[in-house]
Amino acid sequence: MQTEFMMHPSIDPVIFSIGPLALRWYGLMYLLGLAFAYFWGKRQCQMPHYAAVGWTEKRFSDLLFWGFMGVILGGRIGYVLFYQFEYFSENPLYLFDMSSGGMSFHGGLLGVITVLAIFSRTTKINFLQVGDFVAPLVPMGLCFGRIGNFLNGELWGRVTDVPWAMIFPAAGPDPRHPSQLYQAALEGLLLFIVLALFSRKPRPMGAVSGLFLVGYGVARFVVEFFREPDAHLGLLGMGWSMGQWLSAPMVLAGILLMLWAYKSNSAAGKGGTA
């Protein structure tokens, strides 16, 4: 008997519009991610081991604004360079065509790292201590972003016959993994829970940042086996997607950072998150 698969509801990407102004689901997800980061960051400012480093609500608010800008600019630049470089080389103005969509997490990460480096230098807070503070704020933004991808019916998964497969009209008649929801759960909710629990107590400087890199890199690498590769790129060397090639170095860097953190620091000693 043929299995009846779910059909993606094809939700209008625009929630409502007033004249030329429109609120889109993806934009709303960004705002929810920003709101959650603000909420959790304020909680962290009240934790003794973060306050001891010099974190205040004002410092955090300043960082949040510039961090958000780093996500937007870095995400766009990363997408263009990592996924659309050939098209960009022929049409340089494509970089500024935000209406066409396209954001890269790995590019956004590089944008945020740049902002953190500048913030560290101006506030005299160690760069790794800044990273340790910010790391737990990121996953829920990723969670909301992937939900936005799902609502938009984009970045779908590979063809499958699992009972929860879904037909995305824009992808054709074949049922596919709802990989956006896999990413929301693993890269978002689960990673947040792990980091929130891990960072509740003082940790060696760099350990929280390292765990984030490992956690995200592993989650993204695994989910890429279920996500449809970009049509214009396909699978690259070793049968890996671009997302996997960008995530593998994150895992390695995170492991090395955690090893260094626990070798060079102690949770109660100098230089740690406390």
TrEMBL record:
Name of the protein in question: Phosphatidylglycerol--prolipoprotein diacylglyceryl transferase
Coiled coil: none
Pfam families attached to this UniProt entry: LGT
Family: Belongs to the Lgt family.
The protein's annotated pathway: Protein modification; lipoprotein biosynthesis (diacylglyceryl transfer)
Cellular localization per UniProt: Cell membrane
One annotated GO molecular function: phosphatidylglycerol-prolipoprotein diacylglyceryl transferase activity
Lineage, broadest ranks: Bacteria, Pseudomonadati, Pseudomonadota, Gammaproteobacteria, Alteromonadales
Purpose: Catalyzes the transfer of the diacylglyceryl group from phosphatidylglycerol to the sulfhydryl group of the N-terminal cysteine of a prolipoprotein, the first step in the formation of mature lipoproteins.
Keywords annotated in UniProt: Cell membrane, Lipoprotein, Membrane, Transferase, Transmembrane, Transmembrane helix
Membrane spanning residue stretches: 23-41, 62-83, 103-120, 127-147, 181-198, 205-223, 243-262
Positions bound to a 1,2-diacyl-sn-glycero-3-phospho-(1'-sn-glycerol): 146
Domain of life the protein comes from: Bacteria
GO term, biological process aspect, one: lipoprotein biosynthetic process
